[in-house]
Amino acid sequence: MQRKLRLIFGPIIILGTLFAFLWYLDHNPEVVHQLKDTSFLALLLLFLLYIGTTLALMGVLFGSLKLYKKHMTTQENFLLTSYSSLVNFFGPGQSGPGFRAAYLKLKHDVKIKQYLFATLIYYAFYAVFSGLLLVGTSRPWWQTVLAVAAITAVCGAVIKFFVQRNSGLTAGVSTAIIRKGILLIGAFSLIQVLIIAAIYYVELRSLQSSVTVSQVLAYTGAANFALFVSLTPGAIGIREAFLVFSQNLHGIPNDLIVAANVLDRAVYVLFLGLLFVLILFMHAGSKLQLDKVKAATRPSKTRSRS
Q1: Of 85, 51, 142, nearest to 276 (Cα)?
Q2: Distance (Å, rounded) from C-alpha 62 to C-alpha 104?
Q3: pLDDT tens readout for residues 136-189
Q4: How far is Cα 278 from Cα 237, in angstroms, rounded to an integer?
Q5: In a domain, 305, yes or no
Q6: Angle between helices 290-297 and 96-108 (to 10 degrees)
Q7: How many Cα neighbours within 13 Å face the side chain of 119?
Q8: What's CA 107's distance to the chain center, in Å?
């Protein structure tokens, strides 16, 4: 059902967002001038930070495999993470996680439920850290504590329910190894969130120097929560909506939100293009055995007729 919703509403949201961007830029030409004044140094720094996010995701995958005493080489991790990012952005319905799950099941005997469990842990850390950024710099301390406690409680309840429904997820794995895997996922999730905050800081400060660190942190928290309801590639349209509706928390004006997101989308697409060339040069297709993985994810004729 979620995949169908993405396929139906995803293109509608993308087209609507594109139209809104064009209309806004046409009626606010100063935004175009802001983008033209972006320095080469800022663009280079953004590319380096996006490399950092890729390395952080590799660390999350490393910790996820650690939960089940599985291992893959650094090169395989890089190719899988990079290819999943490409598929997630350009593929139908954000199919990156599905591809990664199929690959791990086929090549490393990681069950789908095991992959989901590791992903839930990652999302839990991501939500807690993002929630801390969202309210930690803009609300009184007691509201921050309550918000983070509520997010943590919800994440913990979801994980506990999933474990109870799927016994034997970590059968044969010692508690020490499980704890280490969870700590690794948490550590790399925190690194990823901080790098994303640095990306937004560079983008916003390159367009308007008066933006403060606390504003950027709250802005990052709001943008990150778009991940959980993302129906479009890169949460196009969804992230912008989250940022506009949470303006009373981060205080970033709408024209700056639009300009920063146009800059961010453009740089990220260029980064993915370079990533595609790199993994193509490294023969990702043969090394990851993409034909076998795609065949495993393709529904059988019997299922398609039912």
Answers
A1: 85
A2: 12
A3: 877 777 888 888 899 999 998 988 888 888 877 877 788 888 899 999 999 999
A4: 29
A5: no
A6: 110
A7: 15
A8: 24
Q: Indicate the burial class of 181 (C-beta count within 10 angstroms; 0-12, 13-18, 19 or more).
A: buried
CA distance 163 to 182: 14
Tell me the residue range of the domain where 275 lies. Answer: 2-15+47-294
Q: What angle do CA 26, 244, 128 make, to 5 degrees?
A: 140
Q: Which residue has the higher pLDDT, 229 or 99?
A: 99
- What is the identity of the amino acid at 52? G
Choose among 196, 221, 191, 200: nearest CA to 56. Answer: 191
Provide the domain count of the chain: 1
Residue with more model confidence, 140 or 76: 76
206: helix, strand or coil: helix
Alpha carbon separation from 266 to 143, 144, 223, 242, 261 (Å, rounded): 36, 34, 17, 20, 8
Residue type, 302: T
- Give the separation between CA 168 and CA 171, rounded to whole angstroms: 5
pTM, whole model, 2 decimals?
0.85
